[in-house]
Fold this protein.
Amino acid sequence: MGRKPQRADSDSALIRPADRASPRRARAEVEFEEQTVLGALFGEFDANLVQLENRLGVYISARGNRVLIEGSEDSVARTRDVLKGMHRRLLEGQELDAGAVESLIAMSSEPTLDGIISGKDPLGGGIMIRTRRKTIVPRSATQIEYMKALARDDMIFALGPAGTGKTYLAVAQAVSQLITGSVQRLILSRPAVEAGERLGFLPGDMKDKVDPYLRPLYDALYDCMPPEQVERRLASGEIEIAPIAFMRGRTLADAFVILDEAQNTTREQMKMFLTRFGMNSRMVICGDPKQVDIPGGVSLSGLQDAVGRLEGVDGIAITRFTAADVVRHPIVGRIVEAYEGKDA
């Protein structure tokens, strides 16, 4: 395979004089028995190895099915574990893009996740969500806890910035339970509040007017189910997407209910929504308390009020994501950190 110019390609480049003098330098070799996935493991022009070098500060040399790693003891150990995790993910048929590599790198810094990355506890003890289109595995330490809560608890609050997978994982879990028959309906809702803009009167019928606000939920659905199945289930009522105002007066039994952008609910709206909870149901409330767009200068959103009242209540789980859990492009996490630091 060709290599990009910035990659170290020879042992002389790997072992620098200053490195030899360092008492904490370490070397490790990883050998992969299954060689059919090595092309995907290394990436085009060894892009995945370059990513590991840049992120973990190591030097990597690949020779056939053997990879030599050199750097500090901690970085070498993390790189070895990430490479094993990448290899195992490919053998299990999972995708391995730059985002997946980045997530494994992030998780390798968590001491409690050593077994997950190295394969001693594959995929975190079987933590995954299976849908018709893909199998989803956690991409951060907080996602592991969140996915456990989605499978275990009746009501889950997911708080944190955009890009952490709050809504996407909730929709995936809901689709999985709908497919297996654990629930009979999937109900997705969010408040019809504009994010700092005033769009005026929108043309069309009610569906045309509210669809722009609900588009992120449609996107997650289509990513987890074939489009024809989504359309069929929408037509039959098995999947319902509606603004929160449509929830009043209903009891949502045998349903998986998701409220997105919950920070834009008022206290009264949130109380109304939470009390729709019915038998054999599961409810997930997602939102970023720092992104409130409620008109009228409301100081405390319904999401913040509910979390303050319900934290510690039996059967209710609260998962808090941070900028470190952003699983989009790494620059998104740095942007979130910059804005949070400025507001602090």
